[in-house]
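Re: the multi-chain job from yesterday

Posting the exact lines I submitted so nobody has to dig through the queue logs.
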Amino acid sequence: MKTKLCGHHRTLAGIIYLALALLVSACSPTPEPPLRIGTNVWPGYEPLYLARSLGYYKESSVNLVEMTSAPEVIQALRSGTLEGAALTLDEALTLLDDELDLKVILVMDFSHGGDVLLARPGIAALGDLRDKRIGVEQTAVGALLLDAALDAAGLRVSDVEIVYCAANEHVDCYWSGDAVVTFEPIKTALLKQGAWQLFDSSRIPGRIVDVLVVHADSISTHPRSLEYLLAGYFKAREYLVDAAEDAGKRMAPRMALSPAEVLASFKGLRLLGLEENQTLLSGNPSQLQATASELAGFMLERKLLRNRLTIENLSDSRFLPGNKP
Amino acid sequence: MRAIYSLPLKLWLPLLVLGTFVLLLSTMTWRHYYDRTAEVIKSSQAFVIRDMSALQREMEEEFNSGEYVRVGQDLSARGTNTQYQTLVALDERGRILHSIRLALKNRHAEKVLENFDPQRFEQMRRYKRPDIRLDTDKQQIIVYFPLRLKHSSGEIRSLRSGALFAIYDLSAAQAEIWNQVWRASLPTGLLLLVAMVVLIGFLQRFVTRPVSHLVRVAGLLSKGGRVLSDIRGSGELVGLGEAFNEMSEQLEEQTEILRENEAHYRALAEETPVWICRFLPGGEITYANGTYCKYREKNPGELVGSSFLSLISEADRETAMRDLSALTKKSPDYSHEHQFIAPDGEISWQRWSTRALFDAQGRAVFYQSIGEDATERKQAEERSARFSHILEDSLNEIYIFDAETLHFLEINRGARTNLGYSMEELKQLTPVDIKPEFSAEEFSKLLVPLRSGVEKQLVFTTVHLRKDGTQYPVEVHLQLVNEGSSVFLAFILDITERNQTEQALRRAQKMDAIGQLTGGIAHDFNNVLGIILGNLELLDGEMVAGDKARKRLQSVKKSAQRASHLTKQLLEFSRHQAIEADISNINRLIEEMDSLIARAVTPEVEVEHMFAAELWQTEIDRGDFSDALLNLVLNSRDAMPGGGRLTLETCNCVLDAVYCAANPGATPGEYVQLAVSDNGEGISPELQERIFEPFFTTKPGGQGTGMGLAMVYGFTKRSDGYIKVYSEPDIGTTMRLYLPRVKGQEGASEAAIEHAETLPRGRECILVVDDEAGLRELAQESLQALGYRILTAGNGLQALARLNEDPAIALLFSDVVMPGGLNGYELAEKATASRPSLKVLLTSGYTSKTVAHNGQAHFNADLLSKPYTQAELAQQVRKLLDGSGAANKEQEGPVSTSITWDANFSVGVPAMDADHRVLLGLLGRSQLAIAHGDNSACKELLEQLHEYSKSHLRREEAVMAASVYPGLANHRQVHRLLLNKVEKMRRQLQLGELSIDDVVRFLRIWWVDHILGMDRAYGAYCEGKEEQIAHALEQAGPAPGQGGSP
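And the result, structure tokens for all chains:
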């Protein structure tokens, strides 16, 4: 008697399917490599660290690299050891001048008194700066503010002695010279030591802009991390408003100020919200691009740039919360 | 392992291959990963050493050159390497100078860095040698690197030694390695997969499929089909297939055998006379055999699936479930009986033996019950128990004893109680031990007819011996019963009572026979004496006074009168004497006799009365009662020669049927009881048999007539009563008289026959009817002498003819007992029917043979007892003719009694009778004197009486001594008592304590009682002793005033 053996092939197929599933599971998508974002110390950048402190980046590949000065950050960005950095717009233009392919994904703040020119007591007016040693960071911001201050004083660069010093050297520079172009939190520290504030960024509104830039290729390699980065930033910004006291405590050690001083230092700048960022970054050309073009023209005029820049596709708003990357 | 066995081969074989594949791939991948990780760790360590060396060099140079700002930049630049989790420069105290985390600056490493170890920090500083280690889980490289700090002021060369502390994270690198390794293993995996699929296919083709085939074949075999394996080739599986084929054939053969066996055993189980049921722990029946189905009148399908509990009555279910659940592996059996109530209400009994079968865990899997219908057995048991119970409770004695050893096997309670032995004691005994009249040999011989079957049953009487040594008569019914083993069954009747009853009956019958005999003789004698006396009286009237012949005639007449008196007593005994009954209260009669009784007994005898209050009435002849009581008292007195206590007790009592059954002669009903008890010498049982016989006496010759108790017996019987003797030698005797209760007025029929000195006369025509010619003529002559015209008839028919012929007949005087088909009653009835005005006077010696029927009883009111005197006849005839018969007596009222001597007072000794006559005459005159209010005359008469009495008593005692009367001492004692009493009364009379009336009444009663009760007793002893008496009287001196009337 011949009988049919049922289900034999079905069983075999099942086994093969099981084995394949096992293999495929080994090929699951790998986590993104670390997204390294470098910053120097500036109140406008602190919401990023507040976000880290609050644990918003715990589950992501976001790494904040703390550097002592802007040139250091620029150096690292240029050398490729950072995927992104918080910079002033002028610094970003400088890097574009060096043909780095960067994208602005976030406008962080406008300096509104945060950048200052401080003078030793006795130097009461801008005009008194003639022949004086003025310390300044070798950055576009430094150049911009000093240029605006000299312009206001009716002086030329040749009328003063320029001493270049990095941000971590500003205090020393102040004491060894007559004046220094600096910013928060050094501004608060020096004012406490008796420095006189002769000029500040509030007199050149919209000229000093802090942005978050990333290498253009990082956008494709770290899309999820970038999303995380901005989402965390905006949450921390809300936290700073909602729980200012705790936020101040969390930010104080990094800025080497008291929590109250930390919060006071935010008066010298205007943090931009999500809607403003949408406005600034969206469109082609975006509003930011227009601002950047204007600044580039100014910088070229002041010989802060070597080449006339053709600025295209500078901003990328995809990573703003609510937008699809 | 169990799970693998439960999987089919076609599944677990591929799984085995897959498992092997996974194991292989995992091993390869793991090995690869392990090697790569080791490489990475090694290279990372080398990198960290190089990087730290470079940083150390840069920082130390900058410290030396004073470019302190650069120091921090060099360190923070390393922050871009994200594997540096921590990187700090520490001064000699562990304070953080620079850090890739600005917030840590100026803080102590020990406080803010998690993995920082101060000891290692110090050790490294001391030896200036880098300390690089992997943490335990190889996820981090922890580095302590020496760092010479900027020199202090005054130092040519900096001596300050700080450190670089770094934590280099390897986890991200390892994760990356893992990803890479997996990716790298993918091709290998695919290759292995292909190999696996090929292998599985191969195994399916050459292993799984043949094995499945064999399994299927085995499966079909197991279901009883005949399937042959068709695997071709050579190899183990083929061999296995062939083995299967062989096995299949063998199985088929064995299955056939098994099937036959199964059918055989199933038939056995189905048709076995017992019930077989199998049920689950929940009670659900899974099998019920044919016998049970048949018993329940159901199909197996109806029973299977139903609950076992439904087979049990509701009351027993809970118990059954509890008992079943209590069964264990060690004790799996359970037997139970229960009632089953069928839907039609029929109750049956079932007996079940249940065995529980358990699984490995000890849980009951199912129960198997074997049962049977126990109804018949149960009913038989109940019947047997009931029967046993009845036998046990039977008052008769029942014995079962072994046919061989004769030892008792079973003895019922009745037997045990009667014998006084316990069951255990009796089981040690044989019938011979309780039958003293039998020896073992005799008893064995007795049993022979039963053993041989010649007799089915033996009935015999014997006695049984109790444990206490007493014996009792029994009637034994013995039979041999073959029930398995042979036993003897004995039913024993204790015939003590029966014997007593029979004895009593015999006694009653004997007394009756004696009564009949004496009655018959006495009747005839009476008639003869009637003729003699009648003729003597006629002769006496014809003779001249003072004639010598008349004296002789008087003597003959006296003797005839004595004979008549004796005959009368015999008739009284035999109940043939017509009685004159009155409704009486015997308490009062006894009280009236108090003094008489007191005189009758000796001073040593204490008389006690115990009278019941509200005693019922009884209808008796008062005179007879007095005689009977006196006789009983005298008997008791004689039984207590040394004195004692005499108790007279009366009470109401009811004799029931039971008592009467045991005492033949007694009739159930209400009675007045008189008990006369003494504590004398008692009467032996043998004598008790005879005491009521006439002329039976135990007294010395001449001292008793033997008629005393016979008279009592006769009186009782005539009164429709009953007499019972209780006596114990040396303890005493009680005579109980039961006299029937009547309801009526005391003294309703009291009457007295007035004696008159002159007989009433008349001229009416009287028809005398008697079959006895002598009596007929006597009556004729007597009545003719009184002036009546007399017609006679010899029988009833003649009488009727005479009545028809002569309408002048005013009175019919007829005998009751007559031949010729018409007795006195019938004659009277017919005569008065046609002539209502006709007066009727019947006469009879006895009445028992001829009983008055309804409507005739009223003739008894004026019955004249034979023998009658002329005076009695004259009185009765005149009374009837004058219309003062029985019907008018009540209107007339009681007639006052006066004492006159008559023949009844005769003691048979003429001298004594003469004395008595004088005495009674004096008493009569005393009464008259009182009636006339002449007390002084009365006193004088009493003085005379006193003197005469003393003389008389002396003379009488002389007569009694001469006649050797045995009661002389007692009699004399009574005389002394009287004299003492009279002396006392005389004093009381003088003192006025007593009236003369009291004295006369006392003396009257005393003398009457004494003469009638005591004096008549010695008369019998005087017969034939006339000379001695005459001599004694001479010695005693003459009576006062002898020769003339006082």
